[in-house]
Amino acid sequence: MTRMPALNDLAPALAALALASALGGAQARPLALKDEAGVAAFAADVAAYRGASQVRWVVAARSHADAESAIAKLSLALQPSDEALLNRVSAEAVDPADLPQVADGPVAYVDARADTPISNCSWRVTVTDPQLPSRGAKPSEIGLVPDDSVPVGPAATFRLEHAGILQAKLYAFGETRPGAIRDLAAVADVNIPVAKPPEPELLLLATARNPSALYDSLKAALASAKGERRDLGAGQSLVGQGLVASRGISAGIATIPDVMIAPKAKPADSGKVAAAAPSEDFETCRYRLSPTKS
């Protein structure tokens, strides 16, 4: 896939302004922790992303002691059941010349330095959301692993890249309500918008050594949709009816055309809804996106 070149040096700034306008002023930026309201908002964010196992946070201040003090306040704001999430938060001393916001007190943001994991899957799955606290104006990108669940704002997007071997057949789907499915491999955008209207969405990719009659039938039913969601009926749901095979070789979510994808795998489906038996020649990975308030 190729990217359109920037029209000029102002393009990123113009895009950021347009996004902020569309969201009613919401944009990527650090979260100020200078008062109780800020600490409470940070505690809510940390708790909300508990299901995103790879997300790490930075509390930055003019001194390391001030940052640690803010983390201590965070610990008091968290529910007892969420105290283990403090292991995802680190303190950092930052010069105001590098991050002007710390001049007014500690701030928090997602640690963008954390490597996006591949895990035991052959896919790199990332989410970008301007509502997620970020160190700068550029929205933070967070990596997911299979079975992660992440809250997403209305302007969030996700990106799917395959890192496996060529020559396998990949199937990528997104489902909101039972049977309301889109073929992610047919979506034109590299950065795929989250479900609209906002709904929880299951992302599923299956990898097979040979074509799967079951998933090919779903692709055929969605062929004219060009990546848009269609209601195929609850009987075609990706969950709860044996459609989801267990992991075998490795997998993730894909938004990449079939010609660009290919790890190993062999058909584990018989073409019937309840026949996707676990197999080492067939693998799936699942991720869940849940809408947040706009």
Describe the secondary-structure layout.
Layout: H1 11-22, E1 31-32, H2 36-48, E2 57-61, H3 64-77, E3 89-93, E4 107-110, E5 123-129, E6 140-144, E7 149-152, E8 157-162, E9 169-175, E10 180-183, E11 192-193, E12 201-208, H4 213-221, E13 230-231, E14 282-291
Helix pairs in contact: 2-3
Description of the structure:
The chain has 294 residues and is of the alpha+beta class. The protein has 2 domains: 86 residues, no CATH class; 135 residues, no CATH class. The protein is 16% helix and 24% strand. Helix 2 packs across helix 3. The two termini are 31 Å apart.
In quaternary terms, these chains amount to single chain
Specify Rg, calculated over alpha carbons.
21 Å
Largest sheet: 6 strands, mixed
- Rough outline: elongated
Count of helix runs: 4
**Which percent range describes the beta-strand content?**
15-25%
Fraction of residues in H or I helices: 10-25%
The total number of structural domains is 2
User: Order of strands in the sheet with the most strands?
Assistant: 7-14-12-9-10-13
Number of strands: 14
The N- to C-terminal Cα distance equals 31 Å
Give the overall pLDDT as a whole number. 78
Q: Structural class of the secondary elements?
A: alpha+beta
The unreliable regions are: 1-25, 241-279
The SSE string, one letter per element, is HEHEHEEEEEEEEEEHEE
Give me a quick take on this structure.
With 294 residues, this protein is of the alpha+beta class. It is 16% helix and 24% strand. The chain has a six-stranded mixed beta sheet with strand order 7-14-12-9-10-13, covered by helices on one side. A four-stranded mixed beta sheet has the order 1-4-2-3, covered by helices on one side.
